[in-house]
Specification:
Two copies of one chain form a homodimer.
Chain A lengths: L2 H4 L17 E10 L12 H17 L6 E4 L5 H9 L5 H5 L5 E4 L5 E5 L5 E8 L3 H16 L6 E2 L3 E2 L11 E8 L1 H5 L3 H10 L2 E4 L12 E6 L7 H45 L7 H16 L8 H10 L2 H8 L5 H17 L2
Antiparallel strand pairs in A: 1-5, 1-8, 2-3, 3-4, 4-5, 6-7, 8-10, 9-10
Helix pairs in contact in A: 3-11, 8-9, 9-10
């Protein structure tokens, strides 16, 4: 797998073609699974981890999953691990972990399987826009295919057994990444969080648990799985997301009605800065891209495809920049390279 | 005189063609004169002011000054007075004063004569770039022509008598408007002020005494005239300005050597904001134009003539915007009109 090649084009799930793609970036469903008869990862020594990785990677190879390749991470560079994290193919935990571990994913990056993260196996399916059922069906299929060659740790009473009690049961987490710039700007986002947390759902930042919300992106996902079926969890997510999408749309409309000049100004200044800056850090880039993304979706900024903006969010991350340049770069050099990359991309549209 | 027409094009002294025009915007020399036998303006009642205005405006008409027209201000609208102030044709004092008063100026606005400001007559000559001798010769010629038909208050001991003691003697003030963005950015501007004040010169903001420095513009002028000849004053200014111009150039070079990316970033972001904002106030406009002006002079921003940038500084002022729109506008509407005007102007270049 050539990550340098990969760094030139993000995954298909960023296409911006799914339902509600103006506000819902992507839907992700993941399943946590563990091999029967092996220690959970936190308790496994190096030898056990090695054996688990061998078993799971062999099972992946045998599962007949189109286009899926396994990438071992124990000897991967820091930069490659950060790159996969930026792409949402692996978690922070897998990126910074130790011992034999890895990730398998297909070319379009809609499917990924982490090995020896917190659990032996973490299967994820990613979809553009709001597609919980489709993502669930996909991850379920991968799960069934893997189960042909490995035995899962399963209790008739509790369901799938996992390293952390919050995942016991279905082992499932369904999460939806939302872009909520107007709710943030109009200071209504806290209300959304309050209503979400009442429904046993959690709000997280862009790169999952413990990460900050940048660029007005928020992930909403279920908190617990014990005692709940896959359909219960999908139902929770399917009930809470559409109203949030409507709130965000309403906030944008209100903003446009009450102070159209300030809304346009916000979007266009962001575009002006991105298309002219000669040095820019990740965080500012995310914030400005957020405003541009809203401007594109509101048709204030014409002629710029949503896909181009979605791509930039990923392509401007530090490891992506460095992979494209073919080397590690100090912060200030990276900020200059990022600005040049953004100008080039925006001038093509 | 049609001020609406005037509002579409600033005076010739902004051409940016004079010596050191990258840093010296303009040179101004003014003479304060009073009619012999009349009360000074502060002590003159309405009738006396009326008589003075009549005498001086008649003298201006008789002086054979090409293209010069007298504009009475006692019945001018607030907007017209603000407009003339923004154009540097009248002072704040004349704009906000009372009673019969006015200003005469020629089409290119290189010459202006205020009537019943602090003194009965204030003659000014404005030149592009650093041209103290030329401005002095010009103002001296106007002075001589006026003196043919009016008698000046003059004391063999003190020289020309003026309403304020600081002007007694030559009645002359020579001032130079400087653009010093790098000295401001590199925090060396205070040092410049200290050395200037040691030389009996004063530093003021863009619109003269008591006004703030916006857009990194500073006026340097002589403080006193008593006991000093016109050539002494011109000599002071001629000695102090060239070193400041060199300091500013050196500061720009240093900035470019030590952190070229930040210098380019400053200039281009300013250009990006100005060419994309949908709402912008005067002050921010000045600050951004200042960075763009430096970028043009350093050839970082090509294809944008210095004249276009100089023009924008004047044309974006509140009264200019409102004169062009043909009506008074509330602040927020003005900010939207300003942004539209700037975008239009920049897109032409």
């Amino acid at each position: 797998m050539d990550l340098g090649e990969l760094s030139r084009q993000p995954g298909e799930w960023l296409a911006g073609t799914g339902p509600e793609a103006d506000i819902v970036i992507s839907t992700r469903v993941r399943l946590a699974r563990n091999l029967a008869g092996s220690s959970f990862v936190p308790n496994a020594d190096a030898g056990e981890r090695h054996a688990i990785a061998a078993t799971v990677s062999a099972a992946i190879g045998a599962a007949g999953l189109a286009d899926v390749e396994y990438l071992p991470l124990e000897n991967a560079t820091r930069l490659d691990r950060l790159f996969l994290l930026e792409r949402h193919l692996i978690s922070k935990e897998l990126a910074t972990g130790e011992g034999d571990r890895g990730v398998a994913f297909n070319r379009g990056e809609a499917r990924a399987i982490m090995v020896n993260e917190e659990d032996h196996i973490r299967i994820q399916a990613l979809r553009s826009g709001f597609q919980p059922e489709e993502a669930w069906r996909d991850v379920d299929e991968v799960d069934s295919r893997l189960e042909r060659s490995v035995g899962y740790a399963f209790s008739p009473e509790f369901g799938y057994l996992t390293a952390c009690p919050t995942n016991v049961g279905t082992g499932m987490r369904a999460s939806v990444m939302l872009h909520l710039p107007a709710l943030v700007a109009l200071k209504q986002i806290e209300k959304v969080f309050q209503s979400v947390s009442k429904m046993r759902l959690a709000v997280r930042g862009l790169y999952g648990e413990g990460t900050q919300a940048h660029g007005d992106f928020y992930q909403i996902s279920n908190q617990h799985t014990l005692g709940r079926s896959e359909q219960d969890i999908l139902g929770d997510v399917s009930r809470v997301v559409p109203p949030i999408v409507r709130y965000e749309r309403r906030a944008r409309e209100l903003w446009a009605e009450q102070d159209r000049a300030s809304l346009e100004d916000r979007c266009w200044r962001a575009y002006g800065m991105l298309s002219h800056a000669r040095r820019i850090n990740s965080e500012e880039t995310m914030d400005l891209l957020s405003a541009v993304r809203m401007g594109v979706n509101l048709r204030l900024i014409p002629d710029l495809p949503l896909r181009a903006v979605n791509d930039l969010f990923i392509m401007c991350q530090p490891a992506h920049l460095q992979k494209r340049e073919g080397q590690e770069l100090p912060d200030d050099v990276r900020d200059v390279a990022r600005a040049a990359f953004i100008r080039d991309r925006l001038s093509r549209n």
